[in-house]
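Response to reviewer comment R2.3. The reviewers asked that we include at least one raw input/output pair. We reproduce the pair for GAF domain-containing protein here without editing.
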Amino acid sequence: MEASFKSNLTDKRQRYAQFLEQFAPLIEGEKNEISVLANTCAALKEAFGFFWIGFYLVHEDELHLGPFQGSVACYRIKKGRGVCGTAWAEACTQLVPDVDQFPGHIACSSLSRSEIVVPMIAAGEVRGVLDIDSDQLATFDETDREYLEKVVALLVKTLYSHA
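Raw output as returned:
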């Protein structure tokens, strides 16, 4: 199965809408968490060229590094620490235009300038987070939040629903 997520569209909303149309069949019916998250990283990286994209998964009392694309990253993050740990603790998306202004930001890469983190919530419990970093300030906005939350909702439905 060869799928290309590259797009010539310039409008961000249209690019995300096109991405979702292509992404849904890619993960449909697949239940292997690591495989689905790995392909999600690859698809988002190809579609949007994000500086760093990956998942941290809840394991006992920490977030553990999962599939990602980009430079090496932190292995573990405590609940409430940094942007990822805050998204986990608060169970809500964190949109950070300037990571240097975020209290307790964990700098896995000094090149990271802005970040968005979307929690994956199943049955009222955070299972992990989608973490995307940019090497530019204020890269992410409400459009990114809206559509990345849709991507995560699709992931949660595919991976964690037992219907």
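The first strand starts at residue 52 and ends at 59. The helical segments are 12-27, 33-48, 82-90, 142-160. Further pairs are available on request from the corresponding author.
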